[in-house]
Every structure is written in C-alpha cells, then in structure tokens.
C-alpha cells in the first residue's frame, strides 16, 4: 500500500490515542479515544463538549448520553465520523466511541497499527480475525484490557439479520453494520467485562474500509436497575441471559454504525443540495429581475433619447419652415418691388409719350413760326396767350385717362377697391 495511505491510517489511529484534552481531569484509566480518557471528568461548559448533542440516558439512570456526527475533509476526500460518549452525573467518562469511513488500509497496515497501539497500552492484545466471505472485505478486531467480547447467539443474530434491535447492549462487529454481518453469518459481539480498549477495522481489495475505536468500562454502568430495560448496554449481570419471552424495544441510545452515519450524512448532503438548488433558483430569479430592470432602464433611456430626437427634429422643422417662410416673404417682396418698378416704368412711359409729342409739336410750331413776321407772332401771342392749345389739352386728357386706368389695374391686382 502507498506510504501516504498508511500515514492516513496512522493519523486516524493516533487521533484515538491522544493524551488528555483540556476538558479532561485526573483520569483513572489510560485508555483514550479522540482525546477523551476513560475515567476522566469532562467539563460540560467546554467548547469541545458543546459540539455534542447530549441528554439524560433513558437506559442508565444517572448517566448522560452524547452523540456527534459530521463530515470531515481528508487527503482523499470526505470522511464520515461518528462519536458518542456516556458519562456519569459528575462527568466521569465510562464509554467513548469513534467510527470512521472511509479509511484506506490493508492487512499489513492493520498489523502495524495494532503494534503501535500495543506499545501505547502494553500487554498482548486479543486478536479476532474476520472469517473470510466471498465478496466481502477482510477485517480484524483487537482487544486490550479487561473488556470481554461475547458472541451474539443464533436467535438474536436472526433478529439482527431481520433489521430488528434486540436488547443486547453495546455491540461491535467487523463490518460496522450489524444487520449485514448477521445476514452473512459473521459474528457480532456484545461488550462486557471491565475497562479496556477495542479497535476494529475492515479493508477491501481496493484498500477502502472502516475503522472503529472504543474505550469502555462496562462495570461502571452495568449494575442492575429495577424496571429499567436494557438496550444500549449489556444485561445487568454478565452471565445472565435475557429470557426468551422477554420483550425487546429499540435502544434509546443506539450506537451509530458507520453505515447509519453515512446514510445520515447522505441525507444531509441531499438537503444541502436542495438548499443549494433553491439558492441557485433564487439567484437566477434575482438575475432575471435585474435583467428586466436593466431592460426597463434601457427602454426608458431609449424613449428619452427618442423624445430628444423628436424635439430636435421639430426644432429643425420649425427652423426650416421659418426659413421657407422668410424666403417666400423675400420673394414676394421682390415681386412687389419688381411690380412697382414695372408700374413706374409704365407710368413714366405714359407720361413721357405725351410730353414727347408735345415737344415735337412745339418744335414744329416753332419751326413754322419762324416764317411768320414778328408782328404776326406778337399779335398771335397777345391774342391767344391765355388759351391752351387744343392738341396739348387733348394730350393731357388722354394721359389722365390712361393714368387712371393703370392705377385701377394695380389696385385690382392687390385686391383693393377704389374709393
């Protein structure tokens, strides 16, 4: 097996062999699991103790039962860990347990770990090897101290195989799954005796398996209790066997196996997945709302820009219309001026024509008058000096009539009515 796998197993075991923690006092036993020493007194107010869910034991009067399960991150992924404690009213620990899955190990690694634990506790452990079953991993159980493991009888094994929970007390097996072990004909053991330490492990061909450590002193909590049925602890007397007709009930403080722990963690992970999905849906809805809000803002901005463009176009149209109006007014004034010039030209022509005629006639008369004697001219001048020439008078009348006619035409063109 790779060295890093053996290191993982070593660290897992050493965690169960840690020295007295800050919340333990003057232990009366050397056996420890997860930093808690059997026989030591815990501090209920400590941070470590608050990580457990604790309550009065329904099976052992005067004792408190505590449980904790959580997922821990390891070098090769998530590790599912389960821990449990049974302590007396004064805080004395009489049972402490820890189970891990998955742990990567092999038969050789198991022997190395057993040797290291032996160096810690001394003495020779009692080794129980798992009977080989096709399709199942191999396993081993090692026991130190005065703990006594008693095989479950055939009748109770049948109940375990059926998924029932007979009143057998604390149990331990090779697979960390009592029902599976009983179905496959593997032994399941009841924990009896005195203070001691138990280490159980299994390992498949791929090295994947489970481990369980427990330090226990059954003699501290196995005294007979009147009217108290046993479920999570052995029967009142180690040698006593419950009557065949004795009723059984599920344990109030059952030991959580690794399989149960894994199922619990999987349930929590499923709940976490649902919560994550709900959060993702809410975030998506929030993003959609933000997108709609952005679209509304863009639409509002587009409408505002369109309004500005319309106002600008309207202003341009007004300016263009004003320019057209000014051009039309200028053109109209130009035509009016041209009309006035034409009228003035016509008037000048009409005025000049009789004048020119008069001047011509005058010249003619002057020319004919030179042949008349001065005396005749003088007489004529004296006799007719005050009388207008008929030609001149006629020309003047003609000019007046033509002038009145042109003025009437101009007033008609401008829509005016002569007074």
Summarize the structure.
By secondary structure, the chain is α+β, with helices and mostly antiparallel strands.
Give an overview of the whole structure:
It contains seven helices and eleven strands. The N terminus is likely disordered. It has two domains: 254 residues, no CATH class; 122 residues. Strands 3, 4, 5, 6, 7, 8, 9, 10 and 11 form a nine-stranded antiparallel beta sheet that branches. Strands 1-2 form a two-stranded antiparallel ribbon. The radius of gyration is 63 Å and the shape is rod-shaped. Helix 5 packs antiparallel against helix 7.
Q: Which percent range fits the helix content?
A: 40-55%
Q: Give average pLDDT, whole number.
A: 77
Going by helix content, strand content and strand pairing, the class is: alpha+beta
| Overall number of structural domains | 2
Spans of 5+ residues with little confidence (pLDDT < 50)? 1-28, 224-252
Span from first to last CA? 133 Å
Radius of gyration: 63 Å
Broad shape: rod-shaped
Quickly count the helices.
7
* Largest sheet properties: 9 strands, antiparallel
- Number of beta strands: 11
What share of residues are in beta strands?
A: 15-25%
Q: Give, in order, the helices and strands.
A: HEEEEEEHEEHEHEEHHH
Question: What kind of oligomer do you see?
Answer: single chain
């Amino acid at each position: 097996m790779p060295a890093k796998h053996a290191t993982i197993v070593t660290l897992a075991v050493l965690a169960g062999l840690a020295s007295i923690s800050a919340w333990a006092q003057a232990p009366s036993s050397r056996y420890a699991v997860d930093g808690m020493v059997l026989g030591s007194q815990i501090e209920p107010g400590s941070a470590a103790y608050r990580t457990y869910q604790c309550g009065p034991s329904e099976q052992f009067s005067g004792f408190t039962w505590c449980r904790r399960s959580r997922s821990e991150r390891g070098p090769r992924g998530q590790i599912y860990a389960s821990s449990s404690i049974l302590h007396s009213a004064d805080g004395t620990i009489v049972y402490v347990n820890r189970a891990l899955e998955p742990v990567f190990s092999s038969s050789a690694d198991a022997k190395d770990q057993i040797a290291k634990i032996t160096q810690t506790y001394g003495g020779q452990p009692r080794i129980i090897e798992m009977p080989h079953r096709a399709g199942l991993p191999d396993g081993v159980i090692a026991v130190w101290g005065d703990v006594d493991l008693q095989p479950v009888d055939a009748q109770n094994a049948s109940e375990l195989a059926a998924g029932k929970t007979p009143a057998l007390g604390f149990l331990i097996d090779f697979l960390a799954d009592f029902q599976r072990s009983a179905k496959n004909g593997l032994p399941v053991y009841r924990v009896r005796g005195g203070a001691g330490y138990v280490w159980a492990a299994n390992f498949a061909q791929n090295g994947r398996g489970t481990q369980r450590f427990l330090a226990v002193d059954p003699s501290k909590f196995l005294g007979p209790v009147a009217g108290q049925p046993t479920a999570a602890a052995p029967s009142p007397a180690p040698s006593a066997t419950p009557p065949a007709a004795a009723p059984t009930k599920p344990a109030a403080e059952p030991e959580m196996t690794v399989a149960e722990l894994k199922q619990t963690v999987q349930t929590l992970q499923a709940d976490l997945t649902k919560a994550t999905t709900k959060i993702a849906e809410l975030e998506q809805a929030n993003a959609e709302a933000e997108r709609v809000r952005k679209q509304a803002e863009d639409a509002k901005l587009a409408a505002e820009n369109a309004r500005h463009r319309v106002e600008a176009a309207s202003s341009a149209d007004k300016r263009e219309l004003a320019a057209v109006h000014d051009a039309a007014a200028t053109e109209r004034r130009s035509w009016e001026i041209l009309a006035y010039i034409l009228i003035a030209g016509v008037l000048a022509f009409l005025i000049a024509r009789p004048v020119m005629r008069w001047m011509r006639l005058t010249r003619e008369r002057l020319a004919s008058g030179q042949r008349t004697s001065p005396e005749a001219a003088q007489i004529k001048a004296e006799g007719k000096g005050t009388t207008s020439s008929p030609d001149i008078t006629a020309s003047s009348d003609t000019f007046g009539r033509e002038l009145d006619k042109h003025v009437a035409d101009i007033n008609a063109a401008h829509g005016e009515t002569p007074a």
